[in-house]
Amino acid sequence: MSIIYKTPNEIKKDKYQGSKDNSKREPTKRKVLELFDKLPRGKVLEIGAGDGFLSNTLNGMGFDVIASDINTDLFKPKNIDFLKIDANFTFPFEDNSFDYVVSVETIEHLEYLWNLINESYRVLRGEGGEIDIYYS
Known about the structure:
The protein contains four helices and five strands, in the order ααβαβββαβ. By secondary structure, the chain is of the alpha/beta class. The protein has a single domain, classed as 3-Layer(aba) Sandwich (Rossmann fold). It has a five-stranded parallel β-sheet. α3 links the parallel β1 and β2. The two termini are 23 Å apart. 28% of the residues are buried.
């Protein structure tokens, strides 16, 4: 049996670093892409974009994507607008700015998880939708 102890600073660092191994998340993101493939093209905000795999693929499918994450070091695509956003706080967008908000495996890392839901609702246009996927 192994016991791993982490200091509060190490836990906080892990909480916001994201995973550098995207292979574990690819099946989940592929399912999200299947859902998006059936939707009319529009403007997408991705919260917790990580390395940009989902944002880049959605962009290639014809969606207008703005990606965001608290960690700016992981995001790779150069052709997609990227903003540093802490989803615990107010998003820097006007009301009704996006057709879709997507967040994959992000909400469980937030201290104020309801903020992600409330802010997503605020920035979504009337007929828009939100996709949140997390593991419990």
